[in-house]
Input
Amino acid sequence: MGLRTPLYDSHVAANARMVDFGGWDMPVNYGSQIEEHHIVRRDAGMFDVSHMCVVDLAGRRTREFLRHLLANDVAKLKVPGKALYSCMLNEAGGVIDDLIVYFLSESAFRLVVNAGTRDKDIAWITTHAQSYGVSVTPRTDLAMIAVQGPNARTKAATLLGDYAAAALQVPTFAGAAFGRYFVARTGYTGEDGWEIMLPATEAPGFWQRLVDAGVAPCGLGARDTLRLEAGMNLYGNDMDEGVSPLESGLTWTVAFEPLERSFIGRAALEAQRAHGNLRRFVGLVLEERGVLRGHQKVIAGAAGEGELTSGTFSPTLERSIGFARVPAATGDTVQVDIRGKLLPARVVKLSFVRNGKPSGDVAAAH
Amino acid sequence: MTTPANLKFLKSHEWARTESDGTVTIGISDHAQNALGDLVFVDVPEVGKTLKSGEACAVVESVKAASDVYSPVSGEVVANNDALSATPELINTDPYGAGWIARIRPTNAAEIAQLLDAAAYDQVVAAEAH
Output
């Protein structure tokens, strides 16, 4: 038996198909995964993301500590509530985890880290926090529910009573506390929405009231196809401790400026940049019928070979899409080895779908 | 869905039905399609191909994963289900009917008799669920 979130019984009662995900028993779907995907793109769906871990940091030197710990620079966070996406690197520049950090106050920041990496994350953070006098508190007393989709916020706001109007004012990529709830305008789907942190004991009731408000339960299956369409990385698939963020499509999250900021992994990343010839992290759209999957081989002609890191069928585009790490000189088209057949795929920039519509290179081709 | 009594099964969730002309139609069970979830791609065996029983002869892919389909019988593929190319979800909606995968002219009739009957297959499914 795996770990269970406070919503485990709710999922089982709703006939969810439960699977193991990073040691947790999680719902993969409640019926049709594709319908759950479309509900999030068109209306409002919700995900139990209580397996992810909220970690609160406190202490006078917390900002200084995070400027050392994270590859992105929390100096960018100037307004309380504002959030930042960052990688946490090891000294070799490998990715220990990707996370979101919220600036609550000068002496309090909140991290949300992945489920499968929580133990090593907490150990790493705690080790490095000591010399800064920063306390590290995993908030296992909290559950987290992501409501996502064009109508998600307005539907979920009906549960917040007197807080509703203020909660609807929370700007993109920021969060705020409303009584026992922490409402963050973040997500992993490419749609508008909230991630709501709340006391674990209240989660089943809150979940049921969201159902009553017309928010559809969605499983990890739809969460994966949504994040792939949105061009968002999944830790463990698209990057891990063995690869650099510079080869994982995450260069935009690494703050090399200001030059004097010394963060863990900086020296390794600078050496990689100086060496050059870094592999590119690209989107692929399969031109024929079939399904791209992680670990399939990518043949990029004279440029060499690469590998799919994630792949799926895109319910919005009705064709297969994926992410791949490919040689620097890769052109506009590649071939993918799918069970011994070489099928053509187009190389595109990430992402594929944003706010319900094809985006980027995919939109241009439509 | 009740398992049709006129079908025979492999433990690996393929079904086989002997037609009046002696050919054998194959597909995957309702339990299998339910476990796979929404199907998005089916790679059917080419007509004329010779199959051995127990050999992987088709691939069904859901949003989640790809799975091999094993042939319940040996023989030659005489037809495949073209409709699955555009509408793989037929396997989800009608696994024992419109969601058939291929028709095979069997070379060894004894193989059919060795397959599980519907009741035995139901027990396999029940045992997996335990």
